Backbone:
């Protein structure tokens, strides 16, 4: 009987783990399949951050509910082959998607930083991400004031936490180096 107790305990742990994994795989992905492919294709950090920013902006566009203006509609049509249709979901899901996108962008910057902390693309990418996070939070303030339900409030909290982390990290960066002017050739006389 003593031998069976550890075996039963191990079996129970394995069953619980499998159930947890199954529910994790059923969770909503914060990026569409096309966006995931674009992230994979963008191997340079600042280009990858551009993909994350555009993916978040697409969700903000859906959340705004006003529909795209003529210029945005034209750009969406142009982008539809590579980006696919605009994402769908409830307000809570779309806001959670944006929070997840910001979290993934943070992770990407952290990964590059851990391998090469002197990489000049890190400050550039972080500044871009901080500007986008600030803009997104400002755009969603009216929606946050109208938040209903625990899921929406939780999604806004996660979004705010991620945006704050990005903005704080960017505020610790040294000022950007002045752009170098290209060498000019002496004029021929």
Residues:
């Amino acid at each position: 009987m003593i031998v069976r107790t550890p075996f039963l305990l191990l079996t129970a742990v394995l069953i619980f783990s499998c159930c947890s994994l199954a529910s994790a795989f059923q969770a909503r992905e914060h990026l569409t399949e096309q966006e995931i492919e674009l992230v994979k294709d963008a191997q340079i950090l600042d280009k990858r951050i551009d993909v994350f920013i555009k993916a978040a902006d697409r969700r903000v566009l859906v959340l705004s509910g006003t529909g795209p203006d003529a210029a945005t509609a034209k750009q969406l049509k142009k982008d539809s082959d590579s980006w696919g249709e605009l994402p769908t979901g409830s307000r809570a899901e779309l806001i959670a998607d944006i929070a997840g996108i910001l979290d993934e962008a943070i992770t990407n910057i952290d990964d590059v930083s851990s391998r090469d902390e002197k990489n000049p693309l890190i400050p550039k990418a972080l500044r871009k991400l901080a500007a986008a996070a600030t803009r997104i939070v400002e755009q969603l303030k009216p929606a946050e004031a109208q938040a209903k339900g625990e899921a929406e409030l939780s999604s806004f909290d996660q979004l705010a936490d991620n945006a704050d982390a990005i903005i704080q990290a960017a505020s610790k960066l040294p000022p950007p180096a002045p752009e170098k002017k290209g060498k000019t050739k002496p004029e021929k006389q």
In short: The longest helix spans residues 91-115.
